[in-house]
Design a protein that fits this description.
Residues 88-228 form the Multidrug resistance protein MdtA-like barrel-sandwich hybrid domain. Helix content is 31%, strand content 35%. The protein has 382 residues and is of the alpha+beta class. The chain has a six-stranded antiparallel β-barrel with strand order 3-12-15-14-13-16. A four-stranded antiparallel beta sheet has the order 4-11-9-6, with no helix packed on it. α4 (122-154) runs antiparallel to α5. The radius of gyration is 48 Å and the shape is elongated.
Length: 382
C-alpha cells in the first residue's frame, strides 16, 4: 500500500497531472456556484428593487402661467434667387462687318439710344453711294419717260403717231416710276445698314454681359451684350402648394441677402401653375430698392400676412419630442401631465397655440426639457 501511495505522490510531481487536478477543482467550483444561483435567482434582484423603491425622486420646483391672447402677424418663409426682371439680348443687326469700337463694359449703366459699339462702315457707305446713284439715274429716266409720254399724248389727236406708240410711251413712263421707287427702297435699305453699324441701347439699364470683341466680324443675330432693363431686379421665391394659397399680388415681403442686408419687396404676381418636379410655385417679388443685390444671388425671405388675435405662450413652455409639441399642466396630485398641442405663428417671445389648450388653463412656464409625464412637481408662486 505504501508503495502504491508513494507511486501516486511521485506522479503528482509531474506538471501534466498537476494541471489536470487544478482544472478539475475549477470546474467543481463553477458548478457549485451555478447550482446555487439556479436555486436562488431572485436574491440579488430583490435586493436591488428594494433599494430602488426606497429612493424617493425629489419634486421639481415649477411656476405656472396662463396663456394670453395677443395680436400676432403671420409670416411665411421662403427661399429663392434674385433675378433680372427682364434681360435684353442685344445682337448684331448687320452681316459681315468688322467691329471697330466698344464703348461699354459689364456693370455700366446706359441710357436708351446710347451707342454701345460701332462697326466699320466703309463697305455699307460705298453701297449707300451706289444706291444714291441708282436713285439719281432712275429720276433722270423718269423725267425723260414723262416728257415722252406727254409729247405722244399731245399728238394723239393729229394722227401723227399711232395708238401703239402712244401706249408704249405711257408704259415706259409707268416703268420709270416703278424703277425709281425700287431704287429709293434699296437706298433706304442701305441707309438702314449704315445706321445699324451702330449698336444702340434699346432702353435704360445696366450691362450684365459682354460678348463683343474689337476686330471680330459679326454675323447678323450674333449676341454682343446682355442688359438688365431699367436695372430692375426681382426675387423669385419658391412656395409650397399650401403657402401659395396665402400669398397674393400686393403682399409685402422682406428679403435677406447673404451679407445680412434686408431689402423690402412687393409681390407682383404668383405663378398660376406648380412645377411638376418640385411641386412648388414661384412668387415674383419686385425689389423696392436693389441695395447690394445682384442677379443670380440666392436669398431667404418672408412674406407678411394679415395679423389676428391668438392664444400664446412663451417659447420656454413648449417642448418638442418625437416630432410633436407638448406643454405640461399640473393635476390635483401635483404631477406634471404632458399635453400635446399644435403651434402656429410665432415671434421673438411668443408662440401661438392653435389646439390642445383651453383659454385660461395654467401650464408650466419653463424647465419643460427636464420634465416627464407623471413627474412630481412643487408649484411655486410667482
Amino acid at each position: 500500500m505504501n508503495r502504491i501511495f508513494n507511486d501516486f505522490k511521485s506522479h503528482l510531481r509531474t506538471p501534466l497531472l498537476r494541471s489536470l487536478l487544478i482544472a478539475l477543482m475549477v470546474l467543481m467550483a463553477v458548478g457549485t456556484a451555478y447550482w446555487y444561483l439556479k436555486k436562488h435567482p431572485n436574491t440579488t434582484t430583490a435586493k436591488t428593487q428594494t433599494d430602488d423603491t426606497n429612493k424617493i425622486k425629489p419634486a421639481l420646483a415649477v411656476t405656472l402661467i396662463t396663456p394670453s391672447t395677443q395680436n400676432l402677424s403671420a409670416t411665411i418663409g421662403a427661399d429663392g434667387k434674385i433675378m433680372a426682371w427682364q434681360e435684353a439680348v442685344i445682337g448684331a443687326q448687320v452681316n459681315g462687318l468688322q467691329l471697330r469700337e466698344i464703348n461699354v463694359n459689364v456693370g455700366d449703366f446706359v441710357k436708351k439710344g446710347q451707342v454701345l459699339a460701332r462697326f466699320k462702315t466703309d463697305l455699307v457707305n460705298a453701297e449707300l453711294a451706289q444706291y444714291n446713284a441708282n436713285v439719281a439715274e432712275a429720276q433722270a429716266n423718269l423725267a425723260q419717260a414723262r416728257a415722252d409720254s406727254a409729247r405722244a399724248n399731245s399728238l394723239k389727236s393729229s394722227g401723227a403717231i399711232s395708238e401703239q406708240q402712244i401706249s408704249q410711251y405711257n408704259t415706259n413712263y409707268k416703268a420709270a416710276v416703278a424703277r425709281l421707287n425700287a431704287a429709293k427702297a434699296t437706298k433706304n435699305l442701305g441707309s438702314t445698314r449704315v445706321a445699324q453699324a451702330n449698336v444702340i441701347a434699346p432702353d435704360d439699364g445696366v450691362i450684365s454681359a459682354r460678348n463683343a470683341t474689337v476686330g471680330s466680324v459679326a454675323q447678323a443675330g450674333q449676341e454682343l451684350f446682355r442688359m438688365v432693363l431699367k436695372n430692375r431686379l426681382e426675387w423669385r421665391a419658391e412656395l409650397t402648394a399650401e403657402q401659395i394659397k396665402q400669398v397674393t399680388a400686393g403682399s409685402s415681403a422682406s428679403i435677406t441677402l447673404s451679407d445680412g442686408e434686408i431689402i423690402k419687396g412687393r409681390v407682383r404676381q404668383v405663378a398660376p401653375t406648380l412645377n411638376e418636379k418640385t411641386n412648388s410655385a414661384t412668387a415674383y417679388v419686385d425689389l423696392l430698392s436693389n441695395g447690394s443685390a445682384r442677379a443670380g444671388m440666392f436669398a431667404k425671405g418672408e412674406f407678411a400676412l394679415a395679423s389676428s388675435n391668438a392664444l400664446t405662450v412663451p417659447p420656454t413652455a413648449v417642448v418638442m419630442r418625437d416630432g410633436f409639441n407638448y406643454v405640461f399642466v399640473v393635476n390635483d396630485k401635483k404631477q406634471a401631465v404632458q399635453t400635446k398641442v399644435v403651434i402656429g405663428r410665432r415671434n421673438a417671445d411668443r408662440i401661438e397655440i392653435t389646439t390642445g389648450l383651453a383659454d385660461g388653463q395654467a401650464i408650466v412656464e419653463s424647465g419643460t426639457d427636464f420634465l416627464k409625464d407623471g413627474d412630481s412637481v412643487d408649484v411655486i408662486a410667482k
